[in-house]
Amino acid sequence: MCIFCKIVNKEIPSNPVLESDDFLAFHDLNPKAPVHILVIPKIHVESFNEVSGEIMEKMTPFIQEVAKEMGVEHSGYRLITNIGANGGQEVKHLHYHLLGGAKLKWGHFADADPKDFI
Ligand code: AMP
């Protein structure tokens, strides 16, 4: 069973911020911003590549609710989902990183300059 499924099953602890029948939001163990929340479907879906439109339709308002809960809906935030090897996905269970609480830099993520691949 994957680590996020174990968190859903409460086999390993997390620091939750919001939960519904279908989704869970909890603090990232290794935060990259003052607010860094992971939002996951409770059902195991490997990545954005596999997620259904039906799940995303329900997940969208849940993520918006997490942003409100964390008080960043007006100040702004960033939503990221890493997919596969080149995307840098470490945990193979779909998760959105919700990052905020400060003006985020963009360059941090631009670590593969297109010029290097021409
Ligand atoms: P990714 O690289 O997109 O797969 O992101 C995985 C994220 O999960 C990283 O930001 C980790 O810090 C985070 N993480 C891993 N294990 C845990 C855990 N047990 N509780 C909370 N966050 C975790």
In short:
By secondary structure, the chain is of the alpha+beta class. The protein is built from three helices and five strands; from the N terminus they run H-E-E-E-H-E-H-E.
Question: Key terms for this structure?
Answer:
single chain, 118 residues, alpha+beta, HIT family, subunit A, five-stranded antiparallel sheet, 3 helices, binds adenosine monophosphate
Describe the overall structure.
With 118 residues, the chain is α+β, with helices and mostly antiparallel strands. The chain has a single domain, classed as HIT-like (HIT family, subunit A, 2-Layer Sandwich). Helices cover 23% and strands 21% of the residues. The protein has 3 helices and 5 strands. The protein has a 5-stranded antiparallel sheet with strand order 1-2-3-5-4, covered by helices on one side. A hairpin with a 7-residue loop joins strand 2 and strand 3 (35-41). Adenosine monophosphate is lined by residues 3, 12, 14, 28-30, 38, 82, 88-91.
CATH superfamily: HIT-like
CATH topology: HIT family, subunit A
Mean pLDDT: 94
What overall geometry do the principal axes of the alpha carbons give?
globular
Helix share, percent? 10-25%
- Rounded to an integer in angstroms, the radius of gyration calculated over CA atoms is 15 Å
Text of the CATH class:
Alpha Beta
The unique ligands bound to this protein are: adenosine monophosphate
Number of strands: 5
